[in-house]
Each structure stands twice: as structure tokens, then as C-alpha cells.
Amino acid sequence: MRVDHVGIAVGDLASSLDRWRPLLGEPESPPEVVSAQGVRVAFLRAGETHIELLEPTSPDSPVGRFVASRGEGTHHLAFRVPNVDAALSGVIERGGRVVDRVGRPGARGRRVGFAHPSAFGGVLVEFVEAP
Amino acid sequence: MRVDHVGIAVGDLASSLDRWRPLLGEPESPPEVVSAQGVRVAFLRAGETHIELLEPTSPDSPVGRFVASRGEGTHHLAFRVPNVDAALSGVIERGGRVVDRVGRPGARGRRVGFAHPSAFGGVLVEFVEAP
């Protein structure tokens, strides 16, 4: 199962892009607002995977609260799957908790769904449906 | 620049392998103790990158302190580079802090070196020299 991207919570997208540019260059596409999740994101290619920088659009969004309580840093780990619903059902069947019971629209027009961090030892795992 | 692996700090390697097995299968090789870093690690393949599970071998190792203070979860993000020393020097030249000024032996017989989390917005970045 391939890593689709590593999500990193940042306070300010522009200064964060400056920080990562020497390693990863320019984002693949212009930054995008994902209203449902209260973030503005940019994807930087890193081999076959990506680094997603997530800037909260409001302090009371999930990522806003994450940055306020834990500071900037790695936020989630996303795997590419053929079917998000099946991946989430698999977590539930194995006794794990999920944030989303079924997929929902995410960045880049993809269907996505999150397991609960308790299901993977403190790691917030996202499933992203292959386009 | 390719993501070599994502390092995840865990309390117990065996139960953590059970947790990740449904997604990622078996480790590529038997778990390995990296004495210099006070960890026992296992690498799980995920496409062209890997998930590294790190179990502290003592509570006062860096990863042991990480787990004690923040709990299990994502610990570092490793990029594959042609030359670790040059990658670390690049961080320093751009005004960033590093943990290692030059490379040192790491897991799987590779040369590795860590930047300081402040250099990449709270993300602990490791550079791994391509074999």
C-alpha cells in the first residue's frame, strides 16, 4: 500500500513553502482551500508520494486546534487505496475507531476518509481513493 | 527528493506490527537494534517508501523521552539524498539548526543525519544516504 502523502500542519503556508522549497521545489498546483476541513493546502511532490502542507483557515478548525495545542508538525499519514469505504470498514472490522465511517470529498477532488489516531498507535491515518 | 521513510515511535514493537500488518504486511527484514539511537526498529514497505517503527530500548533514549512526553505517533520524516553531509550543510547554510553536523551510522547500514525540528517547522527531518 503506497503512501499518498504526509500531511504537515503549518501556521503560515507562504513561509512554510519558503522553508521546504530548497528540498522539494514548488507545489504541484496552486494552494487550494478545503472548506469542509478548514484548511488551505499545498502539495509538494517527493518521489511517488507528496508532502501536504496544511494551513488552518480558522483557529477552531481541527488543524487550527492541533497547531494551537501541539505546535506545527506532522499531522497525518495518508495511504492510497482502491476504495476508501472498504478501507474504513476494514479498520472498524478489526476493532479500530474511525473519524469517518464512509468517504467524503477531500483535496484534489479525491474521496478521503480518516481513521481515529487510536486505531494506529497515535498516528492519524487518512485513506485517499486512487483517481 | 524521495521520502525514504516515515518514522513512527511506538511503545511495543510486536503489538505495533500487529496493528500495521493488515495495511502493510510483514517487515522487510527482522527488527534491528540501533544502539547509538537507543531503538529497535522494523521497516515496512509502502510503495517506494517505508514506514519505520521505532521502539525505545530504554526510557531515557530520545525516542523513549518522546513517547513519555507526547505518546506514540509520528516521530520523523526521512528523505533519501545522494550525500548526507551535503544535505546537512545545506540546512546550516540556509540558517537552519541541525542535530548532526555530519552523517553517522544509522539503521540498515546507511549513513544518516538529522536536522533540528526548528529547521522544518516542527518536523524532525532525517537525511538518509542512498545505498
Note the total helix count of chain A.
3
Q: What's the arrangement of strands in the largest beta sheet of chain A?
A: 2-3-4-1-5-8-7-6
SSE succession of chain A: EHEEEHEHEEE
Task: Kindly estimate the percentage of residues of chain A that lie in beta strands according to DSSP.
Answer: 35-45%
> Given this structure, which CATH class of chain A is correct?
Alpha Beta
The name of the CATH topology of chain A is 2,3-Dihydroxybiphenyl 1,2-Dioxygenase, domain 1
Largest sheet of chain A: 8 strands, mixed
Quaternary status of these chains? homodimer
- The low-confidence parts of chain A are none
The pLDDT mean of chain A sits at 96
Q: Please give the radius of gyration of chain A in angstroms.
A: 14 Å
Kindly, what is the distance between the CA atoms of the first and last residues of chain A, rounded to a whole number of angstroms?
Answer: 15 Å
What's the architecture of chain A, going by CATH? Answer: Roll
What structural class do the secondary elements of chain A suggest?
alpha+beta
| Full CATH superfamily name of chain A | 2,3-Dihydroxybiphenyl 1,2-Dioxygenase, domain 1
Structurally, the number of domains of chain A stands at 1
Helix content of chain A: 10-25%
Most residues in contact: chain pair: A-B, 35 and 35 residues
Compute the number of strand runs of chain A.
8
